[in-house]
Amino acid sequence: MKIYQAISEREAKTFTTEQLRENFLIESIFKTNEVHFVYTHYDRVMVGGATPTTVALSLQTYDNLKSDYFLERREIGIINVGGNGTIEVDGEGFNLSKLDALYIGKGVKEVVFKSDDAGSPAQFFLLSAPAHQNYPTRKMSKEEASPVSLGTVETANERTIYKYIHRDGIQSCQVVMGLTVLKTGSVWNTMPAHVHDRRMEAYLYFDLNPEHRVFHFMGQPQETRHMLVANHQAILSPPWSIHSGAGTSNYSFIWAMAGENLDFTDMDFVKISDLK
């Protein structure tokens, strides 16, 4: 399991493109018939994916967690971005269609991932953080996720936002998760940009045609940098960094966070005219 060290804004200012990608880009999230994780030192968050096809996949613990089972001291949020699948939680099955979400709390011992059709497998995006108390397992469909339409044609950011795990949705200790779907002809996300010093964030870009890319912008508002990101690649965003992007086509992305609070609106906005 690759470990991503926490990088300060002072270091990031000096990075080459290769160093930026090495420290902030997760190039491969979904691996066939594998539960795949990376470990980050941003709030001890783990980011990963599970892609079962012909076999069921169990969520196993890792040596560096020093735990008897994965969720002994952790919670996990899951969003399916692939075909229909099932997640068994201590023997109870939850069916997840594309864009459905599932939260599993601390103390659950057995989690098993399955796909309904090996030819169109589920692709479960996973974000796990340390947890201090138990919250119940809960599923939420995209229809239940209070979809909100925002943006305009003029600013090329017509989009629908789905909020799953947050203070007014599924309850958790510190995980916050949702996703944004950009409409055809719209390419900008999270602009005006913002930071939130109270929590880290991870983005998963998906539903992006293989030949297209997203220009993901990061860095301090007056010291911006960018990386080119492909479909099913993820970005780690430190608390000091903006996290915004523009694609060569429309796309969707999951926003997943952990840290100090569960308020979706906890954002310190930066004027477009102040970005450099």
TrEMBL record:
Keywords: Isomerase, Metal-binding, Zinc
Keyword flag Metal-binding: yes
Co-factor note (free text): Binds 1 zinc ion per subunit.
Catalytic activity, as annotated: 5-dehydro-4-deoxy-D-glucuronate = 3-deoxy-D-glycero-2,5-hexodiulosonate
Enzyme class of the recorded protein, top EC level: isomerase
EC number(s) from the headed UniProt entry: 5.3.1.17
Molecular function per GO: 4-deoxy-L-threo-5-hexosulose-uronate ketol-isomerase activity
Residue sites binding Zn(2+) per the record: 194, 196, 201, 243
InterPro entries linked to this entry: KduI, KduI/IolB_isomerase, KduI_N, RmlC-like_jellyroll, RmlC_Cupin_sf
Cofactor: Zn(2+)
Pathway field: Glycan metabolism; pectin degradation; 2-dehydro-3-deoxy-D-gluconate from pectin: step 4/5
Protein's UniProt keywords contain Zinc: yes
Family membership noted in the UniProt record: Belongs to the KduI family.
Alphabetized PANTHER family for the sequence: 4-DEOXY-L-THREO-5-HEXOSULOSE-URONATE KETOL-ISOMERASE
Function summary: Catalyzes the isomerization of 5-dehydro-4-deoxy-D-glucuronate to 3-deoxy-D-glycero-2,5-hexodiulosonate.
Name assigned to this protein: 4-deoxy-L-threo-5-hexosulose-uronate ketol-isomerase
Organism of this sequence: Arcicella aquatica
